[in-house]
Design goal:
11 strands, 3-stranded antiparallel sheet, 2 domains, Cytochrome-c3 Hydrogenase, chain B, 4-stranded antiparallel sheet, alpha+beta, 15 helices
């Protein structure tokens, strides 16, 4: 198990009739999945209070966007959630396209879906490996990076980049798919499900894994709604809400896939939701490859892009939940204002609810189940 970094901040505090200790967990520790600091007040092994401290990675991307043209903003977006950069590109481009009132050609929509779902699988795989490692299971990490490396190879084949593609354009794509991609990716899609079976063999019925995750990080559906929690965390609490199904975009209504729903409200069911989503994303990619339309991949756009004055909000289902972009246009070539609704930032609110009154040893599992990307939290 990755032990939390312990630094005595204040030796003792009076809490009722007991004396408590305040310690730091992070900000530089593997189990915090980035530069995140939690100040934890402990009564023995019981968490009395948790205060999240963020902002160690703030880069002012939303403000920088005000001084860039609309297309120049695209490379900024995939630096937010760098584990699924294509999702950020997609959310931003769809928002500007909504402001412009344009629709991407069917081929461009399918290519976007393929790239975005590959990124979703890659993101969930890395979470699985890192989350298992947090709780002492090293082997799954070596399994998942095997397939993740293949996905990164595909992303590099298409976009020229592994983590930060910047490949989507307002109105479509930068380029069409390489000729060899379709056959190579189909081979992966067919070989992938047995590999997921291997991951589940290692963990799903593993007694140690279940004892460390079942009932840990409990967050009810009611609490999810109150806190604005979305994505796998909400669906693990039985909330049937997936924007790909409930508010389809980019042609997702043309694909047959299931929403991953469980009702355990704990870290174990968040794991099960992500495992099911990995399988469903693979199925979406298969359907997109088989039904890939012919024709243009982009809308032809000339000159400097100047959307009409107005405001718009558009959200997509990113690997961590609802990723939304709010843009205000004043009719010039640069956004007047851009605000990102980052799912990890909102989901992090759940930490106190999941951990206070529980054992400190369970806090690592609860925090891991949120699937943090601090670059998205701080922006």
């Amino acid at each position: 198990m990755a032990e939390p970094e312990v630094k005595i901040h204040q030796a003792k505090r009076t809490h009722g009739e007991t004396e408590t200790m305040e310690i730091n967990m992070g900000p530089q520790h593997p189990s915090t999945h980035g530069v995140f600091r939690a100040v934890v007040e402990l009564d023995g092994e019981t968490v009395v209070k948790v205060v999240a401290h963020i902002g160690y990675l703030h880069r002012g991307i939303e403000k920088i966007a005000e001084n860039r043209t609309y297309h120049q903003v695209i490379p900024l977006t995939d630096r937010l959630d760098y584990m699924a950069g294509a999702s950020n590109n997609l959310g931003y481009c769809l928002t500007v396209e909504k402001l412009l009132g344009i629709e991407v050609p069917p081929r461009g929509q399918y290519i976007r879906v393929i790239i975005t779902e590959l990124s979703r699988i890659s993101s969930h795989l890395f979470w699985l490996g890192a989350g298992a490692h947090d709780l002492g299971a090293m082997t799954p990490f070596f399994y998942v990076v095997r397939e993740r490396e293949q996905i990164l190879f595909f992303l590099e084949m298409i976009t020229g980049s592994r983590l930060t593609p910047s490949f989507f354009r307002i109105g479509g794509m930068s380029k069409d798919l390489p000729p060899e991609f379709r056959d190579e990716c189909m081979k992966f899609v067919k070989a992938f499900p047995p590999r997921v079976d291997e991951y589940e063999t290692l963990l799903t019925e593993n007694k140690i894994w279940k004892s460390r995750t079942q009932g840990v990080g409990y967050l009810s559906a009611e609490d999810c709604i109150k806190l604005g929690i979305s994505g796998p965390m909400a669906r693990a609490a039985g909330i049937d809400w997936d924007l790909r199904k409930n508010q389809p975009y980019s042609g997702y209504d043309k694909f047959d896939f299931k929403t991953a729903i469980y009702h355990g409200c704990d870290a174990y069911d968040r794991y099960r939701v992500r495992m099911m989503e990995i399988r469903q994303s693979n199925e979406i990619i298969r359907q997109a490859l088989e039904g890939l339309p012919e024709g243009d991949h982009s809308v032809t756009m000339k000159g400097v892009l100047k959307p009409p004055a107005g405001e718009v909000y558009m959200a997509i289902e990113a690997p961590r939940g609802e990723l939304g972009f709010y843009i205000v246009s004043d009719g010039t070539a640069q956004p007047f204002r851009m605000k990102v609704r980052a799912p990890t930032f909102v989901n992090l609110q759940s930490l106190r609810k999941m951990c206070e009154g529980k054992l400190f040893s369970d806090m690592v599992a609860a925090l891991s189940s949120v699937d943090l990307v601090l670059a998205e939290v701080d922006r």
